[in-house]
Specification:
- The complex is a heterodimer.
- Chain A is mainly alpha-helical.
- Chain A has helices at 2-27, 31-36, 48-55, 57-90, 96-105, 111-124, 131-155, 159-167, 172-183, 185-201, 204-208, 217-221, 232-259; strands at 91-92, 225-226, 229-230.
- Chain A is built from 13 helices and three strands, in the order ααααβααααααααββα.
- Chain A has a two-stranded antiparallel sheet.
- The longest helix of chain A is centred in the N-terminal third of the chain and has 34 residues, at 57-90.
- The two termini of chain A are 36 Å apart.
- Chain B has a single domain, classed as MetI-like (MetI-like fold), CATH 1.10.3720.10.
- In chain B, 73% of the residues lie in helices and 3% in strands.
- Chain B has helices spanning 11-36, 51-57, 60-90, 96-106, 113-123, 130-137, 148-176, 180-188, 193-204, 206-221, 225-230, 242-252, 256-287; strands spanning 5-6, 38-40, 45-47.
- In chain B, 41% of the residues are buried.
- Classes of the chains: A mainly alpha, B mainly alpha.
- Chains A and B meet through helix 1, helix 2, helix 4, strand 1 and helix 5 of A and strand 1, helix 1, helix 3, helix 4 and helix 5 of B.
């Protein structure tokens, strides 16, 4: 059984890594080599593509801008979604089921036509081309998602734990922070990662709501597609660099994801 | 244990979320509704009622891409959900290997969607790409640029590569949330691996699977950048999905009215399918 598991997961990891391997190799090649012939390894290994990105502020500031609004988004999402998810998992209240489903419907609209009113809305409140505008706009899908994921995990925590804490004299905020949040660490880890991820790869809104000051990396990448064709090597290098921040996030939350419950703490 | 207390004060806990989401949700939605019932010229507009809706619903382009879209989303769910559960079950429970697996699984999710299309565009080419060259090398005549079936399968494979990790990560964290006592009880009862899965793991995965299925349905139903970059919707119309038809209409023809009506119909289809799924699931739960 365990042997079969190891073979299975290895095969899947291999399948995931192959295209990524190809992306990484492309980033070290010149365009002539990429388009010229099939090479499994860069024949003329060069770091030129990376040098271009790190020497030009209009390139690397894209990563900085994306990081700023994504972090803002994750913080806002977790702070608001945690109490809301607790309310949905513990109480019945007027309109709770409808509200719960309505939240998710905000992720269901095809973005193409909605971009224009989005632009008008954020321009009219004077937030156009700021990081917070993108962070708030991304809350439209990250907050509902966070509420849904957190609610699922919170419902798995027995109510008796809440009740015991009250009997022991804990106030609600103290119970929530000291006892409840540590118990659902794995859910918070997953939620933080998903908020990060969806905000990091979302491009249409981020591009619509920014012009210079807060331009995301995804929008800057499109400049590799120019009049004389695509600069494949540069695009690949930029792509490799977009994976790294997210991997660091997973690395930081990995223990929370893998740990699960610590039942019996109370 | 699952009886919820009735308490309308819980609204205060939900209020920040409601305000935050409503701010970005309601005004744009109303604006699009407004577009969809008007004929907009440069500076003036005429109320046209349901004309755009009738025009859209009778449009053969919409009908054919809608069918293609349902087939594609169905295939995505059939492959990614079971595969995601399987991967989550196979992953190591703790230690360095578990961390490494988590990081590798997350990688495809973190690549901007247009870059995903670009990777597969090169990766699948028979002359310069690893997968295309390999398939042709072992005697399969594979070419996603000219063969509609190859193109469709490539888009599906790309989506499986890109998104199965999402289901797997959700299920993995769901599995970790099962207390050890459950497994110990199963061991005492000498339950088979299948019984453990069917009666312990699967019920505990319910809530993460619901959100996983809904997410994969919604996102695959609105897939745009990846097939657009990979195949441009071709060959023929084989990989022209619904959002591409919409974007062509909105940007290509400057028809804001019909495009807005299209968006709302699109939105309602996603909403309806998701709602049917969600109410069926909650209904089944209540029956138990």
């Amino acid at each position: 059984m365990t042997k079969r598991k190891i073979i299975g997961i290895s095969l899947y990891i291999f399948f995931i890594m192959l295209p990524i391997y190809w992306l990484v190799m492309m980033s070290f090649k010149s365009n002539e080599e990429i388009l010229g012939s099939l090479t499994y390894w860069p024949v003329s290994f060069s770091l030129d593509n990376y040098a271009t990105i790190f020497s030009d502020p209009s390139w690397y500031m894209g990563y900085v801008n994306s990081m700023i609004y994504v972090i803002m988004n994750v913080v806002i999402t977790l702070l608001t979604a945690l109490p809301a998810a607790y309310a949905f998992s513990r109480y019945r209240f007027l309109g709770d089921k409808h509200l719960f489903f309505w939240l998710l419907t905000n992720k269901m609209a095809p973005p193409a036509v909605f971009l224009l009113p989005f632009f008008q809305l954020y321009s009219s409140v004077g937030l156009f081309d700021t990081h917070i505008a993108v962070a708030l706009a991304h809350c439209l899908f990250s907050v509902p998602l966070a509420v849904w994921i957190l609610e699922g995990f919170m419902s798995g925590v027995p109510r008796e734990i809440d009740e015991t804490a009250y009997i022991d004299g804990y106030s609600f905020p103290r119970f929530f922070i000291k006892i409840f949040i540590p118990m659902i660490r794995s859910a918070i880890g997953v939620t933080a990662f998903f908020s990060f991820m969806f905000s990091w790869v979302e491009l249409l809104m981020a591009r619509t709501l920014t012009s210079i000051e807060a331009k995301p990396i995804g929008a800057i990448m499109t400049r590799t597609i120019g009049g004389e064709g695509v600069d494949w090597g540069l695009l690949a290098a930029a792509g490799v660099l977009t994976i790294i921040p997210g991997c660091l996030v997973v690395w930081f939350v990995r223990h929370h994801i893998a740990k699960g419950f610590a039942l019996g703490r109370v | 244990m699952n009886l919820k207390v009735k308490n309308n004060k819980a609204w205060f806990l939900v209020l920040p979320v409601l305000a935050l989401v409503a701010f970005s949700a309601i005004i744009p939605l109303m604006t699009v509704v407004n577009y969809s019932v008007q004929d907009i010229f440069d500076n003036s507009s005429v109320f046209v009622g349901t004309e755009w809706y009738r025009e859209i619903l009778n449009d053969p382009r919409l009908q054919s891409s809608l069918i293609r879209q349902f087939v594609f989303s169905g295939a995505v769910l059939l492959v990614e959900i079971p595969l995601g559960i399987l991967v989550a079950l196979m992953m190591p429970k703790s230690g360095r290997m578990a961390s490494l697996c988590l990081v590798i699984l997350a990688m495809p999710l973190l690549i901007p969607w247009n870059v995903v299309g670009t990777i597969w565009q090169i990766f699948g080419r028979a002359d310069i790409g690893l997968m295309g060259a390999f398939l042709n090398g072992i005697g399969i005549d594979y070419n996603y640029a000219s063969n509609p079936i190859d193109a469709w399968l490539t888009v599906l494979l790309m989506d499986v590569w890109h998104w199965t990790s999402l289901v797997a990560l959700l299920c993995y964290s769901g599995l970790r949330a099962i207390p050890d006592a459950y497994y110990q009880a199963a061991k005492i009862d000498q339950a088979s691996a299948w019984a453990v899965f069917r009666y312990i793991q699967l019920p505990k995965l319910r809530s993460v699977l619901v959100i996983g299925i809904l997410l994969r349905f919604m996102d695959s139903f609105m897939i745009y950048a990846e097939p657009f970059v990979l195949t441009g919707g071709g060959p023929g119309n084989s990989t022209t999905f619904l959002s591409q038809t919409l974007t062509k209409m909105a940007i290509g023809q400057f028809d804001l009215g019909p495009a807005a009506a299209f968006s709302l119909v699109y939105f309602l289809i996603v909403l309806l399918v998701s709602w049917l799924f969600f109410t069926t699931i909650t209904h089944l739960d209540n029956k138990k």
